[in-house]
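Provenance and format

Records in this collection were gathered into a single text stream. Each protein contributes a sequence line and a token line. The two records reproduced below are adjacent in the stream.
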Amino acid sequence: MSGFQLWINLPAADKMCAPAYQDLPPEAMPVIATEDGARVKVIAGAFAGVTGPVASKATDPTMLDATLPAGVSIRLPVRAEDTAFFYAFEGSVCAGGSEPVADRHLAVLGAGDEIVLTGGPSGGRALLLVGRPLREPIVQYGPFVMTTNAEIHEAIRDYQQGRFGT
């Protein structure tokens, strides 16, 4: 059994909004089965004309859980300015013509207009994430992610005083 908790960063102007949480059971996410045996669960964004249940206007994310038999590929068109990475969590997965990225390793992808993921020698499974970069500073402390140290201190005070999310 695998589970991931993912947070979507917000632009500085939206950071002080009430927090939101979305628990997605497996049946809430559509799965695309390709003719050559790949299975792609669409969590956010779209793949093969199917849209996932998570959306964020700020970063326009695409999040896919791809299970790829050995040598089988999927292709995802992306905007050249997007930031993309994948986390292999079963077997190994290759990006483009690269060497396989092993289980429990992350690969940051370079710029381009298409991502090609391919199952490694024994196949693999990966979480692929693509989104529009915010190009803003990031200051992180515990579960808080802000743009400045002052905002981090304010968020901690709000939390300690029971004002968090109100």
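Adjacent record:
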Amino acid sequence: MTNTNKFITFVNQNNIYMEAIVGQRIRNSRIQRGYSLQELADLLGVSKQMICKYEQGQSMPTSEKLIAFSKLFGEKVDYFFRQPEVEIGEINFRKKSNFSSKKINALKEEVRIKIENYLYVENSCNLNMNFVNPLEDLIVRTKEDVISAVDRLRESWNIGNDPIHNIIQLLEDKEIKVIEIEDEFAKFDGLSTIVDNRFYVLVINKNMPVERKRFTILLELGHLLINLSALEEKDKEKYCHAFASEMLLAQKKLYEEFGNRRSGISLEELKNIQKKYGISITAIVYKLSEMKVISKEQMTKFFKDLNFNPTLKQVVETSRFDGVEKSDRYYNLIYRAVAEEYITLSKASALLQLPLEDLKASVTLNLQ
């Protein structure tokens, strides 16, 4: 009998306790991968009713079926028997009109799994990382309130008005979870949510151009942090755009870079500011017009030229920011937990989705 079958036999002896856990894991994995009950049943060669029984904890899959689930979902067999270390409540995203409910549910389950793993690692390292929102009591009613919110946030986080070189790293250092998703959703940019009223989470498309990625992260941060309850629904997105723009390039910095009033702006200036602050050229031009450094007519001419000049469009849409947008915090915490023997190598292998032998090779140095 293989080790896998021995493990399954042991677990089946504790069937009553485990059925509900196995059923929930199957359901979460099915939804995450976008399978309907019938599609999953067809792939496994069982009835739709049997899949329902599995998911509802009314029946335990056989050893062969659990191995089939494991291969289909890309999980180790013991995943289906592992009780969630951290209970995650309902995850609610702001409505996205271009998302089907099936895609939203799949995304929720992927996020749920990643949040669960992240919080498990933090708990293993004895970290209490609940986020405290420094803008909670500031109600935004005007664009000036947005500027005040950004000023307060930058002061609270002690980051001044200089360019932010790695926004994801900054947010994770400030105890906001940032989860990057490979873009299987054609029009997915980013989403945000608060889990259990404690954990602030941003979900970002990993494969966006860097300037767009930075803007989207801060747009979603605006939705998470600033109080928009006094605004009409149609204005909330606009004010979060203003928040993201101000976080990337503060008004006072824009005046320093361009002056108070310009009769013209060179493309080279725009390219250099794009590179320095990690904000797109189109966003810079829009902000220049909004701050009356250039006229609305100048802005209109720019966007008209952009629409009819493919060469200009290619130049404008080229990424130039030298920085990266990533964080290694989650991975570092896993290696820390292994080094401190808070978790086993096998557990770390599952969390990192890294073969056990590769993981062993990477943790051979232990400074004790």
